[in-house]
Amino acid sequence: MTLSLREKRRQETAFQIHKSTLELAMKSDFEDVTTDEIAAASGVSTRTFFNYYANKEAAAIGQPPAFTEAQRDALRDGTGPLASDLKQFLQSHMEDLSKRADILRMVGKILRSNEKARGILEGLLGAERRVLTETLLTRVDNHQTAASLANNVTSAIGAAILLWEDEDDMNLDTALDIVWDGLIDASRILSCAKNVEVQS
Fold first, then answer.
1. Given 14, 79, 120, 185, which is the most exposed site by the fewest CB atoms within 10 A?
2. Residue range 89-103, pLDDT digits in tens
């Protein structure tokens, strides 16, 4: 989809506000940063700031990269085992996230100390989970199964980012591999428990 010039400018301004918010938060306590300061650092008016973000916490979170239409199509139309297609889906998304590794680290610092920011991010992730659930319903015929898979996938992204933030010499791909292996092992344990229940 080709964006109009106006939409490109909107996205650029939103990102500039987002980045300025994070840079100010890295220099001093985020609680002390004001929307007036963010607007000035972004080169916009305070009124313009509020045209883009409801508050400074929303500006700190910004707009995390969404699952793209191409990624969803690849998952929807995949012909391999669903687990393999889901891993490829995650790897593709992690590749997008790694392009803004510096932003990820700054957002992570905000999230560790600000409950309101965590709530905003959870709301955005909830919307992505719903989109992913609908995509997965083309591969599985049970809504609860699709929702559980979507929840596990989005949780795996968050867990991989946390692991990557805590390990200085680890990249996002390696962090995802570690988290994915843990998720597969957990699935095996649950599958064994289900088989035991059926046999009882």
1. 79
2. 999 999 999 999 999
